[in-house]
Write a structure and sequence with these properties.
single chain, about 260 residues, mainly alpha, hpI Integrase, Chain A, 2 domains, 3-stranded antiparallel beta sheet, 13 helices, about 5% strand
Length: about 260
Amino acid sequence: MVHSQQENRSSPCCHSASPQRISCHAKTRWPFRVVDQADCGCVEDFFRFLAGKGTIERDPAEALALPRIERYLPETLNELQVEQFLESIDTKAVHGLRDRAMIEFLYASGLRISELANTRLENFNFEERVVRVTGKGNKTRLVPVGRKACEALAAYLSTERPKFVKRHSASEIFLSERGSKLTTARIWQIVKKHAERAGLEKNIYPHLLRHSFATHLLGNGADLRIIQEMLGHADISTTQVYTHVDQQRLKAVHRQFHPRA
């Protein structure tokens, strides 16, 4: 009997709870913390549990307003900026062939920097111009590679890479002078170095080339599902952000050139 009474007894706070009181309590309890959707989900689950047990008559969290998720549009380069960036890389300089091939490869395939670092010779099919990539969640996908990137890669593999190979070298495509695979940090540095030399005012980093890859494909008519597959996105909503980028570009062109924009 005592146990049953304890089960049915609940805090007065639960009975008097309202969306306004819940929000006010969160702001008071965590004044310097942004309450996110996960927090709201926990509150909803708690009151749904109490309502299901009959501890409270109604669920006050039903009308709780969820915080809006801010979508940050990815930065991109336009096609002319990409061309300027790639053409500025001096292939006659030390490591020039490797660096040109690597940056061409990033833009041509849209790989993540970690995927590029781990790409091995046996993963690349020159005849089909396709690379097999193991991405997030250990999922494998096939990604086409453009002609120019393949030409740059062939020049690097035939001339420069053999000089980097040591006894301990594995089959990663992009090697350091010591014969080990390039780390993601080193790839980042190389991209930044050549971006500065290209004289582009934008902040250029490896993932920017991935964003540009997707945006340019979409802008030239590629299907969103195909882009999703090439990028290795598990959810189409992740890829849909590029439709917003393309819309922003169209609006900018309209504002610039339409006489009554």
